Amino acid sequence: MNDQNPNEQFDELMRRALRDEAHRIEPADALPEIRARAHAQRRPVARRPWLLTAGVAALGTAAAIGAFTVFNGNDNTANDGDAVAGPGTTTSATGVLPSQTPSVVSPTPSPVPTAATQPPATSPSSAVKTAGPTDRGVPEQSVSSAVVPVYWLGQQVGVPKKSAAKLYRTWAKVSGHPAEEAVRIMTTKQPEDPDYYSVWRGAAVNRVTRSDDVVTVDFKQLPKTDLDPDLARVATQQLIYTVQGALQDDTTSIQVTQAGRAVQKLFGQVDTSTPLGRAQAADVQALVWITSPSQGAVTGSKVTVEGTASAFEATVNYQLTNLKTRETKKSFTNTMEGQKFSPFAFSVLLTPGQWQIEAYLISDADGSVTNTDSKTILVK
Amino acid sequence: MAQPAVVYEECVTHESSWDADEALTAVYTAHYTSLVRLGSLLLRDTGSAEEIVQDAFVAMHGRWHRLRDPHKALAYLRTAVVNRCRSRQRHLVVVDKHTPKSLPDEPSAEQAVLRTAETDRVIEAMRTLPEKQRTVMVLRYYGDLSEAEIADTMGISRGSVKSHAARATKSLRQLLEQNA
């Protein structure tokens, strides 16, 4: 160690020694335990991007993270090859000048860090309640009563027709298996709001089961209609949003099957051979919803309208029309935050009669109406 | 009807391109091993390091909606792991005073065989350092962190990082030269 570069030599010795020491440690896989504990702790709020299956998403993001790892790249599990080099080759394997190979290195075979040297008993005691993923999904729990969201398609105003369907949500009271019942409503019932529709009519749900990482929705019969790609995509999300909403789980992917088997193409477009993830709300959800009052509601004269909108500069316009007298009230309100889905509310005093409530967004570009939702109510 | 609507709304209005599970899987895949190794170097106890790192990942998952960014998530994990290791160590120091022989870091026989003499000398020398100095050295040489990153991670000033590193370097060099 009395060479000309004592600082560099010291740095290099430290790096090499700590890395060698570190590489003797091969922790056992703990992801299932961490995941189980994370889920036991709280329900996550974020969601997965459009149509990435869990595996693909994980690979992609892991690769992205690998690109900016702050730790030595050698530490990534994928690249541990150099760790098994003998002491003589260690330095050259990591691109260090061979002249710095210390003479004091003993001829001991090498720090071989294999998983085998690490007894599995070292997994910590804290990770107790992880269940191995169940092979078979379990059916949903039956409830006597639950309120579940059911999603529908709604046509958009002012945009080319077919591609413009967006998701709207209604609430339904169900008993039994919430997700199964929600899908049953989505596939068999006519939504109360005449502006909403479903391309799932004719489909018949069999049952909904869930295992650790996937929810399976099995149909006796899937819809046979072929749709254009955009509509098929949104219609698939209609199912995913409905099922995830009923299960109160935004994150678990949905596997669609028919009579227990994966089908090739849903609506002639969507590959359902692997589980499907939830699309971002901004991509599929209508930008403005009236969440209360519901279609056909009977109210007093003071009406509070509530909704959710993703509005440019947070502005939501509304118009209320008495369907008999044509009396109109027109104004605007703000969502709590702009540019993202955020709640809005406003209150009005209405004369008795049937009123139509419309909430809409106006294009910043040309002033046209871009998104609407409307409800008809009866004011007593 | 309003109650579930409100609760559910919070979920629906929340946007992020990666969900917490994805982020967890991705960050885990990329960094779990190195974080356990980092913790083991600090604590000299792999079992405790695993436990601490797992706790940190659970916490990261819970706050993903606030982090939302794998860079931040990694910084968060690193800080959590370092802090927890440090407080565990301080606790162990107290325990050690009463039971000096039952150090948790005594390497098992098979592990000892695998360590090179050089590594052995460095690790033994590191053991003599005070906790802060050792942490700085581990973050610098194993974590490859800059002075600023070390300061952020440990919650100390850059000046302190410098002086801890300088003192540690001095002691280590002396020790290593003695034994060389």
Automatic annotation (TrEMBL), chain A:
<protein>
    <submittedName>
        <fullName>Sporulation and spore germination protein</fullName>
    </submittedName>
</protein>
<keyword id="KW-1133">Transmembrane helix</keyword>
<feature type="domain" description="Bacterial spore germination immunoglobulin-like">
    <location>
        <begin position="288"/>
        <end position="368"/>
    </location>
</feature>
<feature type="region of interest" description="Disordered">
    <location>
        <begin position="81"/>
        <end position="140"/>
    </location>
</feature>
<feature type="domain" description="GerMN">
    <location>
        <begin position="149"/>
        <end position="257"/>
    </location>
</feature>
<feature type="compositionally biased region" description="Low complexity">
    <location>
        <begin position="98"/>
        <end position="128"/>
    </location>
</feature>
<keyword id="KW-0472">Membrane</keyword>
<dbReference type="Pfam" id="PF10646">
    <property type="entry name" value="Germane"/>
</dbReference>
<keyword id="KW-0812">Transmembrane</keyword>
<feature type="transmembrane region" description="Helical">
    <location>
        <begin position="50"/>
        <end position="71"/>
    </location>
</feature>
<dbReference type="InterPro" id="IPR018911">
    <property type="entry name" value="Gmad2_Ig-like_dom"/>
</dbReference>
<dbReference type="InterPro" id="IPR019606">
    <property type="entry name" value="GerMN"/>
</dbReference>
<dbReference type="Pfam" id="PF10648">
    <property type="entry name" value="Gmad2"/>
</dbReference>
TrEMBL record, chain B:
<dbReference type="InterPro" id="IPR014284">
    <property type="entry name" value="RNA_pol_sigma-70_dom"/>
</dbReference>
<dbReference type="GO" id="GO:0003677">
    <property type="term" value="F:DNA binding"/>
</dbReference>
<dbReference type="Pfam" id="PF04542">
    <property type="entry name" value="Sigma70_r2"/>
</dbReference>
<keyword id="KW-0805">Transcription regulation</keyword>
<comment type="similarity">
    <text>Belongs to the sigma-70 factor family. ECF subfamily.</text>
</comment>
<dbReference type="InterPro" id="IPR013324">
    <property type="entry name" value="RNA_pol_sigma_r3/r4-like"/>
</dbReference>
<dbReference type="InterPro" id="IPR007627">
    <property type="entry name" value="RNA_pol_sigma70_r2"/>
</dbReference>
<dbReference type="GO" id="GO:0016987">
    <property type="term" value="F:sigma factor activity"/>
</dbReference>
<dbReference type="InterPro" id="IPR036388">
    <property type="entry name" value="WH-like_DNA-bd_sf"/>
</dbReference>
<dbReference type="InterPro" id="IPR013325">
    <property type="entry name" value="RNA_pol_sigma_r2"/>
</dbReference>
<keyword id="KW-0804">Transcription</keyword>
<protein>
    <submittedName>
        <fullName>RNA polymerase sigma-70 factor (Sigma-E family)</fullName>
    </submittedName>
</protein>
<keyword id="KW-0238">DNA-binding</keyword>
<feature type="domain" description="RNA polymerase sigma-70 region 2">
    <location>
        <begin position="28"/>
        <end position="90"/>
    </location>
</feature>
<dbReference type="InterPro" id="IPR013249">
    <property type="entry name" value="RNA_pol_sigma70_r4_t2"/>
</dbReference>
<dbReference type="Pfam" id="PF08281">
    <property type="entry name" value="Sigma70_r4_2"/>
</dbReference>
<feature type="domain" description="RNA polymerase sigma factor 70 region 4 type 2">
    <location>
        <begin position="121"/>
        <end position="171"/>
    </location>
</feature>
<dbReference type="GO" id="GO:0006352">
    <property type="term" value="P:DNA-templated transcription initiation"/>
</dbReference>
<keyword id="KW-0731">Sigma factor</keyword>
<dbReference type="InterPro" id="IPR039425">
    <property type="entry name" value="RNA_pol_sigma-70-like"/>
</dbReference>
<dbReference type="InterPro" id="IPR014325">
    <property type="entry name" value="RNA_pol_sigma-E_actinobac"/>
</dbReference>
